[in-house]
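Appendix B, Record 12. Input sequence as logged:
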Amino acid sequence: MNSQEYIEVAIRITPFSEDNAEIITAEVSELPFESFTMEDPYLKCYIQKELYDAQDLKVVLSGLEGMGFDIEYSANLMPAVNWNAVWESEFTPIVVDGKCTIKASFHKDLKKTRFNITIDPKMAFGTGHHQTTYMMCRALLENEDAVKGKVVMDMGCGTAILAILAAKMKASKVYGIDIDAVAAISAYDNARLNRVGTRIETYCGDASLLQRNSYDILLANINRNILIQDMQTYAHSIRKGGMLFVSGFYVEDMPMLIGTAAAAGLEYISHDSIDNWCCIRFRK
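Logged structural output:
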């Protein structure tokens, strides 16, 4: 049973904007919070009860004074929840273009596809945007020749769905990086669960870790602001002729992403969209 008590910190942001919420998220992420959700005008942050330190949070939030927005916050104990049960009730298998199935270990008797991925995330809240995961998987599947035998980086790997798919598509080596330690551990465990653990290495950290190597394909399913912030780092770490696939933003953000990528020496190839979520493919 995965039953755990959590503290929900609700931060009211005035004026509220996604940018302001992401500034706060970046600072609060220094503390052991596991998940964040935006619900205008709130940013809601979740942390295990025994890891919550009110004084640490106060110090972090006080450092945001003068940033152009005001914040008020409250912390409330959430009732203990069996997150395994929540996960099982909310997650349904995903089949990408009839070629790749993403499922949990409790899903039985599913029709096999060419690539089958089993994930058992340890993170208590959320599974990411299925639309963006779907499009990133599709981008890999449509570029199989560019994956086979190559080095792939899954930046912001989460539960490592993309890293595992790349490994199953015969990439020679796959790396995964996530700023959340819980996600990085979950990624490692999921790689082993899918019997590709020997070809996937996962690390906890940010884009500065990319300089350890160079990559034929870099995958980044994160969010608009982080993608723009780290675009130059991505471009620098991609080998000549290599590719960058990005998602985690809306269609209307495309011009900004394409312009930032062009300035970093990356050429727009194509894009995909589902429910206004977007995925863009670039080449160096």
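The first strand starts at residue 3 and ends at 14.
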